[in-house]
Write a structure and sequence with these properties.
about 400 residues; alpha/beta; Rossmann fold; Tyrosyl-Transfer RNA Synthetase; six-stranded mixed β-sheet; five-stranded mixed β-sheet; 13 strands; globular
Amino acid sequence: MLDAVTLDTITARGVSEIIVKGEFERLLQNGNPLRLKMGFDPSRPDIHLGHVVGLRKLRQLQELGHQVILIVGDWTAQIGDPSGQSATRTMLTHEEVVSNAESYMRQFFKVVDKDRTQAVWQSEWFGKFTLADVIRLTSRFTIAQFLERDDFARRFEAHRPIAITELLYPLLQAYDSVVINSDVEFGGTDQKFNLLVGRELQEMMGQRPQQCFLMPILVGTDGSRKMSKSLENYIAVEDPPNDMYGKVMSLPDGLIMQYFEYLTDVAREELKEMSLAMEADSVNPMELKKRLAGEITGQFHGAEDARAAAEHFERVVQRREAPEDGQQYLQVALEGSTSTSDEFVRAFPTRSRNELKRLISQGAVEYNGQKIYNEVMHQPGEIIKFGRRQFVKTVDFDTEK
């Protein structure tokens, strides 16, 4: 039997809804290993802290002896999940999906225990599907049922296109649950419809219906919208320590407690004290944010790198000093002259030229100590500062070789 504190941590902290909570708690207390399903569509090559909310819950349950099954949606990713979207999603090639999946898997195991995780690809079963199988699957639900889903309903009412392939997405995700005989499926609140379809399909096919475990949507660094790479308001799990620490420090104060609750193991009693202190203005939010940044950076990079990142932030951001030694600059080798945008994408390959344009428009780019408001050409031996934390030193290509 689980104690009350453990049960509360599993079922209440970082949880939006469990369908059906009483039944899920009974299964937990039975002590039999549960098959925990979480699917992911590798539509992009990396994951961020928004994904980590659910992965942390899986890790907690792994430590109680339960089995995690990660579904690599190599078929559904090629369709595109419309959950929470206002338009159809671009279909990917199989090669793109496989490449992204390899990156995803490496990053998932920064949170979940690889030795207690089974990863399976949808193509193991959908690769054998015939047209007859597809028709049998679609015959179990009606169009009217699927138009009850919020995003489909909004698009239908607005006369926006809904591809037939998109209607297949919830069915294929539901069939995954049948194939692996899922006991519990995990997803964000925007996945509620899909998880419930899986529960219903299992019952139709003679299985015990899965429990649906819904996690809250993490707000991004802009303080208003869902964390998303496309919105450039995300913190990636593979961000370097200085970047990760600095991005957490850039969060609006109103997100501090949410991030503490969803992404750390700080005791709930202590979180209550923090929250009360913030309400009473008896604590500087900056101090709480420093602890939060240390907790999160330490999870992915270790305590030593987290301490170094804190020192870097205080020196470079708070005291506005340049890095103390050349090793703290990102070096970019040049062959002749090149532009600011070229240096940006070379130094930070996961970031976009559009982000650079935004930084320049905000006066957040400095060239040899002077702010610039347009792109300039660079020569070796110059220093470019992007935002408050990133310093790039250009060096001669021949010297670098």
